[in-house]
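Figure 2 data, in text form.
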Amino acid sequence: QVQLVESGGGLVQAGGSLRLSCAASGRTFSSYVMGWFRQAPGKDREFVGAISRWSGGSRYYADSVKGRCTISRDNAKNTVYLQMNSLKLEDTAVYYCAAGAGDTRDRTYTYWGPGTQVTVSS
């Protein structure tokens, strides 16, 4: 069992940056692929990016955030991060972290956090 809690969301101006954190409970954190998803009002949840298990040597991102976002993980702290730069209005959404066998599909993740709101203003 893994419990996830996101933090770091908030209100930011377009062009600004935020770093989201996701703290996980449990001793098996490093064995999970960690993903980030987001859901904007009236839209389906969409994949943002993911980092591979163990050392996190593989990372992949949605085209919409590629070049602006970086995912990292600190297994000693049971935490995964999403650094977001050059934020755009369309990045406004609730951001979720997830743990599982994971790829770009949300159904491949078993555990989910409650989400953190990111609002980008003009």
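Caption note: The chain has a mean pLDDT of 96.
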